[in-house]
Amino acid sequence: MQTFFKARSMNVVLEVPSISDHPIFAEIKDVARNTVQMFEDGVFDEVFIVYNHHVNSISQSIRNEKLLPLTEFHENEAEHDLTTYEFEPSEGEILEVLLPQYVESLIFGAILDAKAAEHAARMTAMRSATDNATDIIGDLSLQYNRARQAAITQEITEIIGGVAALE
User: Fold this and answer.
1) In this prediction, what percent of the chain has a pLDDT beyond 90?
2) 91 φ, ψ to 5°?
């Protein structure tokens, strides 16, 4: 994978070479935490996740989503809200805990979606291979039976020819 990105002059900071077929959050948590920490430390300015999105069992699409920094807050909605909220602890302390968890859940969701797309693609490929193998077996069985019948017919003809020569 690094070869793909390096050929396009993209810097690879972190690579996760393999994820199990049935990922659990504990597997992903360290990767997500490292990603958020590197963003906070300024290793990179933006975090995007690109993955195969499972549409249905025969179709998938590529998704490219921006994870960090979060930019989809609607400030106009806050102006119309007449309710005031008091936060305990402060808003900043709450966001310090919630934002990494939010990004972790987005990363985990994307990985689950990509795994679902991968499993669907494998299932479709295996069904296609099974169908093709069944067709080939049918064709080969037909050829075998024809060759066997031709051999039997040839033997019967030779036997009848031998009997006719003796008479």
Assistant:
1) 35
2) -55, -40
